Amino acid sequence: MNIYLHVESVIRELDSKILLATIAASRGHQVLVSNLSSITRGIRAGLLAPGIFHTKSLTPGEDKILRHQKIIDNGFYITSIDEEGGLIDVGYDKFAKIRYSDKTINQSSAVFGWGFEDVNTLKKIYPKFSSKIYKTGSPRVDLWKSIFLDYWGIPKERPSKPYLLISSNFGTANNKKKPHELIASQKKGGYFQRDPEMFNRNFSCIADESSMMLCFINAIKHLSNNNNLYDIVLRPHPVEDVEAWKVYLEDVANVHVLEKGSITPWVNNSFAVLHNGCTTSLEASIAGKPVITYAPFEKKFNKALLANDLGYLIKTQEELLLKVNTIFHKIEYKNLKNNNEKNIDKISNKIFLDNNQLAAEKIIKVWESLDTNNLSQSSSWVRFQLFLNVMKCRDTLRVGLKNFIPNRFRTKEYNQKFPSLKKNDITERISKLQNILGIDKNLECKFLSDKTILIKQS
Fold first, then answer.
1. What is the pLDDT of residue 128?
2. Is 5 helix (H, G, I), strand (E, B) or coil?
3. Under DSSP, is residue 244 helix (H, G, I), strand (E, B) or coil?
4. Among 184, 278, 285, 330, which is disulfide-ready with 343 (CB 3.0 to 4.6 Å)?
């Protein structure tokens, strides 16, 4: 069977897609891991045989609905798990209405859920599609489990001292895009139609988050000035402006602003995780790490009720310094363990943890149940690779021509969410997963471009 895995954000999604691809390829399927543009161009050119197109969301924007319909018209099946997840808030109703619609679910052949809450809510709101909504869990959560510790290893940039990990989630106040650019994107995606209050709320959220961001900057300075035993690693959200953080914290000792790669190895190797309203608090809880929620004031918007209900709630800088030191010195080891068990109970409705089977395996079994002979036809991978090389040359030429004739040639912006992939890095990831999972099949990883990988049995 042909499986096409759409990756939007490499930092967030690549490893889970590699996990899916490795297991699927070991079961005899041909799997393409790629950015959206390469897949859709290949489909339009008739170079990719029909298969499963697995995407990161079913948000009911007009462009996406039209794109998905064209993919379906070419004989493909669409499946999805929403990579945003709606994990940090209590409840799922609002998320389900904004991120899905009758139209987009109708276009899909299977919708995969992170846990009990999203699956039950989707079935309640979209009852006529209940049969295609599956509680599988997320492959991203698979990789949070202890059996994958060796897969992640130790980050090369890890400081020499033990470190406190601060997971930043200020994507509204500190976004790489300007506020009006974000609003333009949301408007194009139809968000304001589905949530009329969202436009006004955006401006209040910017003020809210800016105030909280300032509190975090001052708290980081306080922690740094009053300790020399541990370092602080600040990990910005993928949509945040990293350079802004480096400016704000450039004169603060023992602080490292790092964004490279997945956040998971940074969680695994920290002694605690500090956050406000961040999904990483759920990941840290599953990893057994102490979680500290710093909330010096109550935000009016984006309260992240579930995320901020995990771990220790701290409201002042002095309390924060005391709690971090207490955790660092393991003074309250028994209390820390009990607190983490409470965290797991709180998130169990959001995240389905199955100790007997990976979420990735559940998803692949659903794909296999959808398989028809039409989904297993061979693609001309050589022709597709040549096509991608031609497209890359054409795009490069257009960039050059735009510099000379800017009004005539329109070019796509560089996708910061999807930098070029490295073959040695990807093959090493696949090899690690094979060792951990005991997969003894000979798998071939072929780079068709710097953003498109074919994984299959050799």
1. 97
2. strand
3. helix
4. 285
Given pLDDT bands bounded at 50, 70 and 90, which one contains residue 79? very high
Domains along the sequence of the chain with CATH = 2-144+354-404+418-457 (3.40.50), 154-347 (3.40.50.2000)
CA distance 437 to 22: 10
- Adjacent-strand bridge partners of 149: none
Nearest residue to 121 (alpha-carbon basis) of 83, 85, 73: 85
Q: Contact at 8 Å (CB) between 87 and 282? A: yes
Lowest mean pLDDT among 86-90, 134-138, 153-157, 388-392: 86-90
Half-sphere exposure for 127 (CA within 13 Å, toward CB): 1
Cα–Cα distance between 286 and 350 in angstroms, integer?
Answer: 12
Which residues, in sequence order, are bridge partners of residue 234?
Answer: 166, 257
Statement: the pTM of the whole predicted model exceeds 0.85: yes
d(CA 212, CA 293): 12
Which are the contacts of 253, defined by CB distance < 8 A and separation ≥ 6? 224, 225
Rg, Å, the chain Cα set? 22
Residue 3 belongs to what H/E stretch?
Answer: strand 2-6
User: Are the C-beta atoms of 15 and 428 separated by less than 8 Å?
Assistant: no
Q: 204 with 172: CB under 8 angstroms?
A: no
| No. of helices (H) and no. of strands (E), the chain | 19, 14
**Residue 438 Cα distances to 27, 124, 197, 435, angstroms:** 13, 39, 50, 5
Answer yes or no: are the C-beta atoms of 258 and 265 closer than 8 Å: no
For 271, list phi and psi in degrees, rounded to 5: -95, -15
378 three-class SS: coil
- Looking at residue 449, the DSSP 8-state letter turns out to be E
Closest CA to 87 of 324, 265, 308, 379: 308
* Residues 290, 288: Cα–Cα separation, whole Å: 7
Q: Which two tokens stand for residue 161?
A: 């001292």
Confidence of residue 206 (pLDDT cuts 50, 70, 90): confident
Query: What's the CA gap between 263 and 178, in Å, rounded?
Result: 25
Distance CA 351, CA 331 (A): 30
